[in-house]
Amino acid sequence: METLDIVAANGLIYAFLGACIAACFGALGSAIGSGITGQAATGLASEKPELGMKAVILEALPGSQVIYGFVGLFFIVYVVLPKYETISNIQGIQILLASIPVAISGVISGYYQGKVLAGSMAMLAKDEGSFANAMIMGAIVETVAVLGLLGSILMLLKV
Length: 159
Known about the structure:
This protein has 159 residues and is mainly alpha-helical. The protein has helices at residues 2-47, 52-60, 64-80, 89-98, 100-126, 131-156.
């Protein structure tokens, strides 16, 4: 009986590791992306203070990756895990592996979204009317994170 408890505990450890990976990598992507964009935003706002609020809005866009990572964590902890009395090693590993799409897409899309939005600061400095274009360009990169979250959820539904 004690061996069964250890096996169940290991499965739960893998599942919680997956939840942590989803949340931490999403946060990492947001921090990197917002940091890159923020560096460019401070330059723009120092030269053209009237564009400061638009720069702040663009800087906030990469903050969504942390939300997707948190949704991944929430889905694991509050949707998948309550379905089972115990989690086997195999189920725990499945949950861990299912967290990878949201985690990796969060970091990569956060980084590149930050770069796209940092570049859009120069565009905004030259033409104040290009704000909508800048947001659309950032949103295109955002699609990667959304699809990563969707991939993780689809896999988690099959555990």
